[in-house]
């Protein structure tokens, strides 16, 4: 009986490793914060904050990857307390890996460290200095990433903070090497 189970396990394991499994996985975090304050005059004020961050891990299609991540502020209070929940798409892009470069199109995080950027506009340097995540670093953009050798690369970015509008005054662009 034990030999049959081992053989059956090996057959199933072989089938699972031989075929690509299509699955969507989800990960993220939910946070619920309740705070209250007693004042000297005897009054009490309280505040409830909640948010939900989710990222869907989608299967690749050949050399194309897809990414989708979003944040919902006040999801519980939106359902129970009559407050308005807000939705923000952090990432929603497709990345294709060509033989000489990678092309990413859609809403993606764009942040640059000090001294590595040649561009006429500010890419949220304040958020970099504070070392905290800011919604302004997630923007609609097209990025071409060109690996030059094992330790250097070139990234060309055109971002569209007001949506995909190709007027030059509404675009931001950058080069990082």
How can the largest sheet be summarized? Answer: 9 strands, antiparallel
Total helical segments: 3
- Envelope shape: flat
The rounded distance between the terminal residues' Cα atoms is: 62 Å
Low-confidence stretches: 119-132
Number of structurally distinct domains: 2
Q: How big is the Rg?
A: 23 Å
% residues in beta strands: over 45%
Number of strands: 9
The topology string of helices and strands comes to HEEEHEEEHEEE
Structural class: alpha+beta
The helix content, as a percent range, equals: 10-25%
Q: State the strand order across the main sheet.
A: 1-2-3-4-5-7-8-9-6
Mean pLDDT: 79
Secondary-structure map with pairings?
Blueprint: H1 2-18, E1 25-38, E2 44-57, E3 64-73, H2 75-80, E4 86-97, E5 102-109, E6 117-118, H3 125-130, E7 138-149, E8 152-159, E9 172-176
Question: How would you describe the overall organization of this protein?
Answer:
This protein has a nine-stranded antiparallel beta sheet with strand order 1-2-3-4-5-7-8-9-6. A hairpin with a 6-residue loop joins β2 (44-57) and β3 (64-73). The chain has helices spanning 2-18, 75-80, 125-130; strands at 25-38, 44-57, 64-73, 86-97, 102-109, 117-118, 138-149, 152-159, 172-176. It is flat, with a radius of gyration of 23 Å. The chain folds into two domains: 23-90, no CATH class; 98-177, no CATH class. The chain has 177 residues and is α+β, with helices and mostly antiparallel strands.
List keywords for this structure.
3 helices, single chain, flat, 48% strand, alpha+beta, 177 residues, nine-stranded antiparallel sheet
